[in-house]
Amino acid sequence: MSILSSIGRIATRYSAARTHARTQRVLRSLPIELRKDIGWPEAVDEQPSRPFRIQATVR
């Protein structure tokens, strides 16, 4: 495993986390009536958002 592959994996995880957070922000910004129409569960809105964390894996 090279350092470049490790950096690539970290960058991929970071990008996915940012995309997920952006999607949730957009959905939460919609009016409540529209969120109900598209089936966005209100229970998700009650959960605090978790910051991105890099987890080290030992192989």
Task: Please tell me about this protein's structure.
The chain is mainly α and 59 residues long. The protein has one domain. The chain is built from three helices and no strands. It has helices at 3-29, 32-38, 42-46. It is rod-shaped and about 50 Å long. The termini are close together. The model has no long low-confidence stretch (mean pLDDT 80).
Q: Describe the main β-sheet briefly.
A: none
Q: What's the multimeric state?
A: single chain
Radius of gyration: 16 Å
Q: How helix-rich are the residues, as a percent range?
A: 55-70%
Number of strands: 0
Mean pLDDT: 80
What string, H for helix and E for strand, traces the elements in order? HHH
Number of domain units: 1
- Our estimate of the beta-strand percent is under 5%
What general form does the structure show? Answer: rod-shaped
Q: What is the first-to-last residue Cα distance?
A: 9 Å
> Uncertain spans, ≥5 residues at pLDDT below 50?
none
Return the structural class: mainly alpha
Protein name: DUF1127 domain-containing protein
Mind sketching the topology for me?
Elements: H1 3-29, H2 32-38, H3 42-46
In short:
This protein is mostly helical and 59 residues long. The chain has one domain (3-46). It is built from three helices and no strands.
Supply the key terms:
mainly alpha; 59 residues; rod-shaped; 3 helices; 66% helix
